[in-house]
Amino acid sequence: MEAGFDTVLQAAPPGFADDEAPDLGRRAFGVDAAAAENLGSERDQTFLLRDRAGGPLAIMKVSNAAEDPVTLDMEALAALHADAADPLLPVALPWVVPGADPSEGPAAYRTRIEAGAADHLIRMYDVLPGRSRFVASDLDDDACTAWGETTARLGRALRGFFHPNAQRTMLWDVQHAPATRPFIADIADPHHRELVTRTLDRFEEVVVPSWPRLRAQVLHGDLTVDNALIDERGRITAVIDFGDMSHSALAMDVSSATESLVAGRGEDLFRVARLILDGYQRITPLEPEELRLLGELIAARAAITVAITSWRVAAGLEEADFAQRFNDLSISTLETILDAGWDETARRLGADVPRGDDTDLIARREAAMGPAMEPLTYGRPIRMASARGVWMTDTEGRTYLDCYNNVPCVGHAHPRVAEAIARRSRTLNTNMRYLHEDAIELAERLIASCAPGLDTVAFVNSGSEANDLAWRLATAFTGNTGGLCTAFAYHGISDAIAPLSPETWPPGGHDHVETWAPPDPYRDVPPDAGAFDAAIERLAARGHAPAVAILDGVLTSDGFLDLPPAYVQDLVRRTHEAGGLWIADEVQGGHGRTGDALWSFERFGTTPDLVTLGKPMGNGHPVAAVITRREIAERFGEGTVFFSTFGGNPVSAAAALAVLDVLEDERVLERVRGAGEALRAAVREVAARHPAIGDVRGMGLANGIELVRDPTTKEPDPDAASAVRDGMREHGVLVGTSGPHGNVLKVRPPLAFTPDEVPVFTAALDAALAARS
């Protein structure tokens, strides 16, 4: 048995009869009770003292003679602390012994009475309203959720409390479940012994190694149906016993309450448990590891219930009917959990647990999502489990350097952004019909980041929506119907914007859209505006004047072509002369990706008419925006009222504000410049050994590596690009491909990428190229 085992569990409880209790109350606290009702207790005695009319006077606790007085003091102090921290918690408070002074210490809440063969400490507590001796499975869904909430409130009220005696081996605290192994021999039923043994085996294998990482504090630990009173709706009206307090993992508290409330619910166990957890997490969200282990903790609580009560009955310390009144329910809980399996239990309780093998998932994906869905990357798809910064981890535990995903712009799972989302979602998420400061502050900061004149912001949810809204603004302002984009651009999926995304066009194009080929220094295509003028003329021939020309400032889909500022300035001027507006699409190049400025259009010395932002704005959270001039927004408003249900909601706005803060606090632009320069320099060293690399180009952390069949002819080699992309995956680095021929390696990592990751990237690139030699 574990050292330090609390010996009070081994001592027989007091044995006073009901008719003796009033005299004890009179002698100890001067309570003039006419009768008493024994409420039952495991190792103490608890009496409800009544007056002559049968009304309740007080709750009297007669402590086990083996109980440490300082532990009783701890219980009194904890109840008082919880009441002070949360006065609305229905905690039964201890009485002061007549004539005692509580300012002199907690001994003022107990007194010693000589009675029978031993002395006993007597305590008196308030009588609170409510009823006991109820059946957990009779509580409805709302009551279970409320119970979880009260459990969390009680834990929160105690989190600032500590007492040395809380560091004890209280066997009802599941952290000491292994100490109950000697009691298994006292379990009469072989099947029950086997269930308890399996549960304790799992606890030692999985929970014990994880326990030091779990949040811990002094906890009530036993807010079960035995230790609470409820009203007619099943809500807790009184927390009546702090006798099982200990310093333990926070998850122990919720597991004890959950195990008590799900008893007797059969297959409904998991649904009810989720409702209890919903209530608990309204107050105290559980961490992923706590949630993952919760099934083991609930099962362990059920297992030790059977083990401890079987031992106490075998030792003659309790009557079997009282001690083992919950054992059948505990066994049912164990059977339900063990039949489901540990992983399935964790999943049903809300933990993030992978399900099914990859082959099964691929088939289900195809069946559910259809053939139009973009195919999975790589012939052997990666099943990701988690990500942080620039690193992603698959379900087999292998890590990958992410040099592909631009959406988590300040890094996967950035704590500032993740916490901002979680914090705001716990308090408020509504729409822009209500006044809230976050969206207003975000709009003001975006305006402040742009040139004068760009003074109006509209919020949406994605880059596609932002570009769609920009198109509507432009057509309303200009009265024109044509659109211009680069030859292989991508700007979104809406009905209005898909035609401006020739990367995904079927053959034939669109009548109201024309494209122009941007300059390509690698192939000696000069920055000549003639191609742009020709596109305008082709539109005019079909009866369309341009409403917009739209440009991704880093030309991601066109292969990361670096445009001269004077050339872009000329195109903006020509667009305006033709009656159109200029859209700077910052979904790819914005939020500091170039390292020169926050927005990629600033590199060109231009002021666009509309700026569109996408999901990098919220580090992957669905938030986007359009920034424009007031006169454009006013013209649009003459014909309609714009409203997006989720656009600018407080959670999205909190995410976007956090991203802007991170960009400033971490000096991201400076980091991007340095990392981008180091990356391109290192790749050029690799290129010197591999003639398949025709060109290395880019700006900041938007970079392209063009692969060719022959460095002299510069013939594109898409097969090599695909093979190198797949080869780099095998060496733990993720990239994509882009360009009209699909022969450009797309290197656009999260902006958390630093020079430290450059050797990892170049080693994978070198190895993948060498494998094709």
Q: Assign an overall shape.
A: elongated
Strand order across the largest sheet: 13-19-18-17-16-14-15
Rounded to an integer in angstroms, the radius of gyration calculated over CA atoms is: 35 Å
- Helicity range of the residues? 25-40%
Give your account of this protein's structure:
This protein has 773 residues and is of the alpha+beta class. It has 21 helices and 25 strands. The strands form 6 sheets. A 7-stranded mixed beta sheet has the order 13-19-18-17-16-14-15, sandwiched between helices. A 5-stranded antiparallel beta sheet has the order 1-2-3-5-4, covered by helices on one side. Helix 7 runs antiparallel to helix 9. The longest helix has 27 residues, at 288-314. The radius of gyration is 35 Å and the shape is elongated. The two termini are 66 Å apart. The mean pLDDT is 94.
Give a quick rundown of the structure.
The chain is α+β, with helices and mostly antiparallel strands and 773 residues long. Helix content is 38%, strand content 16%.
